[in-house]
């Protein structure tokens, strides 16, 4: 008997929570783990003038034989897991009549129910709908992750455009951003220029009908998002700097009205 069998009475556990109610992974673990073969030192039966004890060699004789130590009964591993008849002796109540073991075991292993259970155990995992579903879910997850990765790449190009225009202090929008326009504004023109040399971006702009990232609303959203990130970055830098100097610069227009102010920090 192994240490694991001493601690866990696997057969009793399966009787308490049947195989059919377990998850696919649990089932797979049970099938791969194989049948427990406890010694059953307490299983004995008085014969004619002697006491018959359970012989562990029976496990070799009957490759399906298993037992519950706690219940002190013999079971069929195949039927315990896969029998259609859930309440038979070998799959539910257990067998303990050692005087008739050979006869009962020989009869059991040729029953249709046992043979069916044997086939189900041997082929478990090969053609299971669960495993095919698992495979389908895995493929769908892969496709989804691939799409998320591509979309992130596209979004990166869009933000690069916004950062470039912002850095060069160029305007974004055009008066006419329609596809017929000869000048669609800096943002759209820069994007289409990049798309000439970038097949992914070109494919995205020419095929995506739901989100192209070119609408005025998206341009503004990107500007606000980038501004927010930059603001947070500046705050962190200020927080970590030992000294901060603030310099305010202003210009006036021809009517001597405050036109714009420029704020810079030195750290
Ligand atoms: Zn059986």
Overview of this protein structure:
- By secondary structure, the chain is mainly alpha-helical.
- It folds into two domains: 3-127, no CATH class; 132-239, no CATH class.
- It contains twelve helices and six strands.
- The protein has helices at residues 3-7, 10-16, 24-33, 58-61, 77-82, 89-93, 101-108, 112-122, 129-167, 185-197, 199-207, 216-240, and strands at 44-46, 51-53, 65-68, 73-76, 245-252, 258-266.
- The strands form three sheets. The chain has a two-stranded antiparallel ribbon. A two-stranded antiparallel sheet has the order 3-4.
- A hairpin with a 4-residue loop joins strand 1 and strand 2.
- It is elongated, with a radius of gyration of 38 Å.
- The two termini are 73 Å apart.
- Bound molecules: zinc ion.
- Zinc ion (ZN) is lined by residues 64, 76, 78-79, 90, 108, 114, 117.
